[in-house]
Amino acid sequence: MHLALLLPRIRLSPAAMPSTRSASAxxxxxxxxxxxxxxxxxxxxxxxxDISKPEATASVKRKRVKRELEVNGEHHKKQVRIVPDxxxxxxxxxxxxTSSSKATASLVKVEKKVRVSSVIKVGAPDNWEAVLGGIxxxxxxxxxxxxxxxxxxxxxxxxxxxxxxxxxxSTMMSSQTKDEVNHAAxxxxxxxxxxxxxxxxxxxxxxxxxxxxxxxFYQKKAQFIKEASKICLExxxxxxxxxxxxxxxxxxxxxxxAHLVMSIAWKNTQGICVDTHVHRISNRLGWVFxxxxxxxxxxxxxxxxxxxxxLPKDEWEPINPLLVGFGQTICTPLRPKCNKCGINxxxxxxxxxxxxxxxxxxxxxxx
Length: 367
Known about the structure:
- The chain is mainly alpha-helical.
- Among the domains are: 128-140 and 274-340, Helix-hairpin-Helix base-excision DNA repair enzymes (C-terminal) (Endonuclease Iii, domain 2); 155-265, Hypothetical protein, domain 2 (Endonuclease III, domain 1, Orthogonal Bundle), CATH 1.10.340.
- The chain has 17 helices and no strands.
- The chain has helices spanning 2-11, 17-34, 36-49, 52-71, 99-115, 128-138, 145-149, 160-174, 179-191, 197-201, 205-212, 218-236, 244-248, 255-265, 276-284, 300-308, 319-329.
- The longest helix has 20 residues, at 52-71.
- It is elongated, with a radius of gyration of 37 Å.
- It starts with a helix and ends in a 38-residue tail after the last helix.
């Protein structure tokens, strides 16, 4: 009797409870395996308890994003200044870009900037003195347009102050314009008494544009010439600025023009004047490279920087008319006359471009 009463108590004792819970858990596990909903909930709860994995994953992602931003130059974007093309940057038509394409182009430029190293020093190219001497020999005849109708010929008979202004106006009109066309425009201004800042300010813009036509972008240049004339009157007493920075502050004046004006008007050469001829020929001769690379320069400004690293300073002023005339007569943009060139045995680009409409023309190198 007493034993029968004790049996229910033994089943309900605390010592028996763990085994009961284990059995219940086992049954739940079996049902979880059969029930996908329960299994899914259980998996989620297991992840929530393992707090180290999400943090580690997030950390890896943050590091990866950081590395990608550094590779793409994102941290340097605000510090990079893309230098515009020297000769025609004031007048070059701007291509319409979408915001995404602008961002892409910006990233590409930034990456190139970041990769450039300023540690590598550029030495003078091999045989540069022989090449330069050969070009000087070919230019002795002085038969190129630049020799008689270049910007330095503007106002050659005028007093110094008036001549400086004539040189500035001639230089401002010279971009994307042949020397013959530019010289004729200067002559028309002179004939109408308009190589004077006061006279230009009093002349309406349309009349001025018609007088300098057909120089490239004559309407825009007429506007810039009037503005520059007014500044010369108000700030320089009718003379022109005598520093690079003040010349560059004039609308329509780029680095190439500023260096040319400083050399011709003020006899103060502070840098090489690089136009399209100097830029092209320097690359053909293998004289210039983008900083820290062995790749050709892509802008006149890059060419100027590269040339100034090794070319003796006493050659900085004469190199412009020398190579301009060489480019007008022998080393032309299209079909260069390599057969007539006296340095084709030293030029790495000789005969590599089509030098004649006739592909069967015999190649004759200089001895």
